[in-house]
Amino acid sequence: LSREGDPSSNGRNMPEHFSSRKLHLVSQTACTGTQYLPAVGMAKALRKDGSDAIVYVSSGEGATSEGEFFEAVNWATREELPVLFLIQNNGYAISVPQHSQTSSEIHRMAAAFGMPSYHVDGTWYETMYQLMPNLIKRMREGLGPILIEAQVIRLESHSSSDDQMKYRSEEEMARARERDPIMQTERYLLRHRIMVQEEIQKLRAGIQAQGNKAAEEADAATQPEQGRITTRIYSDQTPFFEEKA
């Protein structure tokens, strides 16, 4: 809500972009594709420091049509940098279907640069859980970057300025709802008698209450002071260098 206390910019950043200093999660820019090159730079710095950490960077399939994506994939592969590229492919770049955006598949693009790439069902947790630990272990051991293209669904419009029912049919939406990962998991838990319906309803109510409480706390926070608009935006320690003849 761009209120005082925002950990990234104290209320000066675009809202709804989650971040956490404790978890090393950077608030991602809203500009499409611009997160990729900084991720590669971070991976290069980590390797120089001798760290075994990896860098995770993600986007939708639409952002992979930007030049920054190809630069990042090329650079990360060439220098074998520990970057995990995860593309969440829901079939639409806002209102543009994938076939109108590219004639290729995202994982094939990465493979063309020599990067190991995988195409998975991103709506089913077990698929990702079985795949990821081994790949991350390989990356920590210095075997370079990896790209995963996860086929997911989009149940709502891209944003409040988008009306997906202008370009998506009811039949398509019905198929998407059947692949809702939360609903698939609930059905799995019930089918295997891991949980009963009452337990799931109780869990849902607890999550809803937690979300409502967080929203109320954020809404009650104070607005940023106008006099400190540049706080955490510009450094007050800008280095100066003498010109050499």
Description:
The protein has 245 residues and is of the alpha/beta class. Helices cover 39% and strands 11% of the residues. The chain contains 8 helices and 6 strands, in the order H-E-H-E-E-E-H-H-E-H-E-H-H-H. It has helices at residues 36-48, 67-78, 98-101, 106-112, 125-140, 170-178, 181-191, 197-220; strands spanning 55-60, 83-89, 92-93, 96-97, 117-121, 146-151. The strands form 2 sheets. It has a 4-stranded parallel β-sheet with strand order 1-2-6-5, with helices on both faces. The chain has a two-stranded antiparallel sheet with strand order 3-4. It is globular and about 75 Å long.
SSE blueprint:
Elements: H1 36-48, E1 55-60, H2 67-78, E2 83-89, E3 92-93, E4 96-97, H3 98-101, H4 106-112, E5 117-121, H5 125-140, E6 146-151, H6 170-178, H7 181-191, H8 197-220
Parallel strand pairs: 1-2, 2-6, 5-6
Antiparallel strand pairs: 3-4
Helix pairs in contact: 1-2
The gist of it:
This protein has helices spanning 36-48, 67-78, 98-101, 106-112, 125-140, 170-178, 181-191, 197-220; strands at residues 55-60, 83-89, 92-93, 96-97, 117-121, 146-151. It is an alpha/beta fold.
Q: Indicate the proportion of strand residues.
A: 5-15%
- Unreliable segments of 5+ consecutive residues: none
User: Averaging pLDDT over every residue, what do you get?
Assistant: 90
Alpha carbon gap, first and last residue: 50 Å
Give the neighbour order of strands across the main sheet. Answer: 1-2-6-5
Biggest sheet descriptor: 4 strands, parallel
- Specify the overall morphology: globular
Following the backbone from N to C, one meets helices and strands in this order, namely: HEHEEEHHEHEHHH
**Which structural class do you get from the secondary structure elements?**
alpha/beta
State the helical fraction: 25-40%
Output the radius of gyration: 21 Å
Number of helices: 8
